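If your schedule permits, I should be very grateful for your opinion on a structural question. I would ask you to consider whether the tokens describe a fold that such a sequence might reasonably adopt. Thank you for your consideration; the sequence and its tokens are set out here.
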Amino acid sequence: MIFLEIINNLALLALIAIFSGYFDVQCPGERRVACLHGLLFGFACVVGMTCPVRVAPGLFYDGRSVMLSICGLFFGPLAVAVAAAMALVCRIAQGGIGMIQGIPVIVSAALLGLAFRHREKANRHAPSAKRLLSLGITVHVLMVLFMLPLPAYVIKDNFWKIALPVLTVYPLVTILVGKVLSDHLSRTRLFCQVQENEERFRTSIYSIGDGLIITDINGNLSHMNPMAEKLTGWSEAEAKGRPCSEIFNIINESTRKRVESPVKRVLQEGVVVGLANHTLLIARDGTERPVADSGAPIRHSCGNITGVVLVFRDQTEAREYAQRLEYNESKLRQLVKNAPIGIFTTTYDGYFSEINDTMAHILGYGDARQVLADNPNIAKHFYVVPELRKELLEKLTEEGQVKTFESELKTLDQRRIWLSWNARAIYQGEDKPFLIEGFAVDVTERKQREMEAQRSANRMGVLLRIISKPVNNVQELLDYALDEILQMTKSKIGYIYHYDEHRRQFTLNSWSKDVMRECSVVQPKTVYNLDKTGIWGEVVRQRKPILVNDFAAFNPLKKGTPAGHVQMNKFLAVPIFQDEQIVGTVGVANKDGDYDAEDVIQIQILIGSVWKEVARKKAEDAHTLLSGQLMQSQKMEAVGRLAGGIAHDFNNILQAMLGYSELLKDNFASDKEATEILGEVISEGRRAADLTNQLLAFARKQAINPRVVNINEAITNLLKMLQRLIGEDIDLRWKPGENICLVKIDLSQIDQIMANLAVNARDAISGVGTLTVETDSAYLDETYCAKNIGAVCGNYVLLTVSDNGCGMEPALAEHIFEPFFTTKERGKGTGLGLATVYGIVKQNGGHISVATEPHKGTIFRIYLPAYFDDDTTGIQQPRMVETPPVGTETVMVVDDEASMLRSVQLTLQSLGYNVLAALGSEKAAALSQSYADEIHLLLTDVVMPKHSGRDLQKIILSQRPGIKCIFMSGYTADIIANHGVLEEGLNFIQKPFSRTDLAVKIREVLAQKQTQAGNLR
């Protein structure tokens, strides 16, 4: 019985719960539906508790546990709260012993329903029978457990009577009610969803902006949206069921023939089809509209075609827009084509994809088609500086566009132009490089004006710097100007040459520093004849600038460069004009870019202005130099006259002193002490004679016996002697020049020059050093001679003696050729060494210069006149004699000083000669007349009262035609011969002379053939 009562109670509750499915439809709103469900399930609980299954007084069972758990599971917290509240109120109102057990049953059932609801939401599935069973068992196991607190007698009599049906029937009812409610709710919601989908579908179709027609399998119209009604002129109600071809009447715009219905084709072929262009739709009222459409089959889930959907659109506005677009594009194309600026599109790599004619003209092409056919790369073929193209790409990459980006280009016809670019990047995709589109404006004229203004300002600044540069001479001025020219033209190397149009000869003024560092030419020339120059000489021959931007290319004007010459790849030379004459040339080379006309103009304008300053500076320097040289020359001449004035008397005194001393030395040969004393006297006398000879050499009044000499051979013979003079610590370097001309000079004077310069270098070098001796050919031009008083234009043999000693200040160098001027300590120098060199050079018609700086050494340059006469006598080598030769011939000695006469007489007698002594020319003539035997040799003084030595020679020759003659003198050479040089063929010995010198000279003259006797010519 209790089972039936429980089932009846639960069935009533389940029937009431089923009505809850209608609230979702009838009472929309989430909170409202939840409250209604709570009231319904609360009412079901109350009904169940009013007709429960009574077990004992105050203890009954009903279906509230099932209702509350189901309510919590399906409808959530609000619904179950309302239902549980109603159940609690009702149960408390009923009271009895089961009230305490009934309240936790109500609460636990509601909470367990919510707990299972939360879990089902996580699974997102409708509760299964297994879940419902689990919920029923859990709820009612708790219900049975809640019976345990009841009184023992109640439990004893009723526990199993209640527990068994509760644990079996109630879970099954939970499954039943849950499934019924779940299925009912699912059907209700599915129905609503179908209604919503249908409405959404209808709304979507009828909201489409294009015309839409749907047909059935037979091609009859089933649906038509408002746009289709408007375009066809048919309403949906009128058209429904009619053939689509009747409603959708289309013809070909051109032929006016009817076009097959696309619906028919879709049903036949089962594929999507579209109308051809130029299709017209004829509306019901006859209106014609251009349309575009497409038809597609509608397929069942099994794949069978159930109908066709046709979508079409009025093309009237589209056609008008397309026509306007085509018109505008045509106008735009014409505008781009005829635009006065260049318009282009290029790839990232620099190839043109689009270009207008103006851009083609800018680049030197005839039109755009020619450019696209040639397909040039703008970076490789046009950019003068390709790096600027990279800079443009970097800016486009970073910023997406560039504005007024300027660069220099070289056109197809090799013109240089400047363009201003405005461009932007057009991206094609992440993996593709962007395109570049934009326009370019030719700003060459504006850029040239700017650059010319800038160049003018730069030139003015450079010129002001050059003119205001504190310099000591023209050389420094031009050196500085060359540096500025190199910077202005961005060149690596350069030069400035002076040019003499009369001699057709270049003379180097300045080489750039880089040339000096890189050049390894052995003994590079500084003077070039125009006829021997290559392409760089064309600047003079053609009298215009010479520009070569590919120096490595073959050119018939080039004559090659010497080994070690600086490598050149570009070259520019410009002539320097002054009063229509070329006075110099400027050359620059190895610019990074090409040289052009602007570089020529820059150099011409700048060097023209600089050369005016050079002319002014030269005039100032020449005046200063000439004034100083004139004063120095006058001073040197005065000292020379003083030296020459005392030479005769002093030499006669020395000659007598030396002669008597040598005689005494022979007479007292057995007295050792006397011999030593007399030896010292003779040594000091010879030192005094050397000083006198040095003074005479300085005064250019030294009697000399010049011969034609190969100076290379003469110096080669002196090398051992020079090495002994300078010592082993100093390296002697001999660099003889090739094809050196001969010179005419007394060999003994070369000995004097080299000995004095070697000693001077030795004293200037502290410790280890180098003395270098070089020879070369040289030409002194008018410019050089104008700056150096006493120098004469012509060809010379250049003897250069240089050392790396201490050098000296310029102020001291001005006095080094003066007699008795010395920088050495007292007792270590007489100050006559360089004065002697100076006098010898001047006496032989040469020129000497010195270049010296403190701690940089000294260079002496000696210019000796080149000898070109074919009638040469060869090199005369001096003989070294250890024992004076003797003789037995008769020698007549003539002198106007008794002491001198006596000294020579005794010397000759000691040599074995028969001596006839005559005091003066008159006595000599008389003695010759009266002497009966042969007189072999006349030894006579040159300057004597009444008759000179030369007059006496004529007299005695008339008496004794075969007699030979030797002249001797202590006077300066200008008195005994023109310019200090005895006539060729006369035999001469300079006072004071040694016994050996006299003995050798006599034997030499006596050995001469009769035809070479010392006769006057």
Q: What stands out?
A: Residues 871-881, 1011-1017 have pLDDT under 50 and may be disordered.
